[in-house]
Design a protein that fits this description.
Layout lengths: L5 H11 L10 H18 L5 E7 L3 E5 L4 E11 L5 E4 L1 E2 L2 H7 L14 E3 L7 E8 L4 E8 L17 H15 L4 H18 L5 H4 L14
Parallel strand pairs: 5-6
Antiparallel strand pairs: 1-8, 2-7, 3-4, 3-8, 6-7
Helix pairs in contact: 1-2, 1-4, 2-4, 4-5
């Protein structure tokens, strides 16, 4: 949960930059970089803005996460008309369905789904089996786009990312004066601190791919 305001981070940044009157680095400029930093946080840590929301299924197999979403993290369960939890939904590989049930997209539709398929090349979409008749819902876990904040507002990401965002603002500030060798070095150091604070590893997208978890066997038609 976010409790830290943008203003508090920018005040710290101005102190470190020795520009508390915001002459060299205006506050609105620093705020733009803070909001840029939030977006970069979510690129490397999609779960930083993770949300669970019931999604109305469209008729057929192809589905989409909410419009504010950046990428699917998981499909959890069916949701009954009264909002009560239903059957769990498991992830499977499309190749498994294609090999076992080549006509699975055209099979009989139903209100409840059993499996979902994810393709990292289409992070905002997924497919379900059996095909939906359009009446059901599923609880979807997804990464949401972080909203830009004003000075008085709290961060769109959790407080745990506050130090990383401070490093990001400082990185962008020093980049403004990167023609000076010392500032170029400072900018590089601050960006490295930002990345380390996030614990960034290689293959970030794969780490958040639903297929990292064990996929389920294909059920019969």
């Amino acid at each position: 949960m976010a409790t830290i305001t943008a203003q508090s981070i920018l005040t710290r940044a101005a102190t470190i930059l020795q520009d508390t009157t915001n002459v060299r680095w205006p506050e609105d400029e620093l705020l733009d970089w803070l909001n840029d930093g939030q977006r970069d946080v979510v690129i490397y840590k999609p779960d930083a803005t993770a949300k669970v929301e019931p999604v109305q299924l469209a008729a057929g197999t192809q589905q989409a996460i909410p419009t504010e979403g950046l990428s699917l993290l998981d499909v959890i369960r069916n949701v009954a008309a009264d909002g009560s939890p239903g059957r769990a939904v498991k992830v499977t590989q499309r190749q498994q369905l294609d090999d076992t049930l080549p006509d699975w997209h055209a099979q009989a539709q139903g209100a409840s789904v059993q499996l979902f398929v994810f393709d990292e090349r289409n992070p905002k979409g997924f497919w379900v089996y059996p095909p939906s008749d359009g009446s059901g819902k599923v609880d979807v876990l997804y990464s949401a786009a972080p909203a830009d904040v004003t000075l008085a507002e709290t961060l769109s990401v959790d407080d745990v990312y506050a130090n990383a965002l401070l490093d990001y603002v400082l990185y962008r500030a020093y980049m403004k004066d990167a023609d000076y060798a010392a500032n170029d070095q400072r900018a590089t150091a601050q960006y490295q601190r930002f990345m380390r604070a996030l614990g960034v590893r290689d293959n970030t997208e794969s780490k958040n791919n639903p297929y990292v978890r064990k996929t389920s066997p294909v059920v019969g038609g």
